[in-house]
Design a protein that fits this description.
Elements (H helix, E strand, L loop, with lengths): L9 H21 L11 H14 L4 H14 L10 H13 L3 H13 L8 H13 L3 H13 L7 H23 L6
Amino acid sequence: MAGLVNFEDEEEVKEYLENLGVEFSFQCYKEKDPDGGLPADFKTAYSCFLKSCKKGGKKSTEACHNVGLLEHDGRGNDDEKSNASLARDYYSKACDSGFAPSCFNLSTMYLQGAPGVPKDMSRALEYSLKACDLRHIWACANASRMYKLGDGVEKNDAKAEALKNRAMSLHKEQQGDARSLTFGE
């Protein structure tokens, strides 16, 4: 599979994609690194993401989200303990910039509560709806469930159904996107 791939030739692309895993695996063994790649260094990653988040710019939104993830599970700090309130702050920064996964993570933090982040169903709904507006399927499903059960909000079957339909529509759309790959056009 060495050499260039003609991406206008559907058969050649299919063969390339089928052999992609084998090619990467072989390269790792060839380099005497069967596990593939560099060892995970979460503290260095945290430092880089934090710097990018604070700097701002094109990639800062995802960097802020990644700082939130590392704080949330404790892999970014020295004591390796979760810092939910700091994670919330970084998720908020990314969510405010329109990053749906951060809005969704905020909604789940408020749904469940965490040390330093008390359970707050109205904020959980607020962030679920924002993430849903940003096309996050599970956020739409969570908001639908909250309305259906009256969980922290006034029960509203019409809103629950509309949000459920939105989640289903987004799911169908994403499945269609995966199948709409065309070649040579």
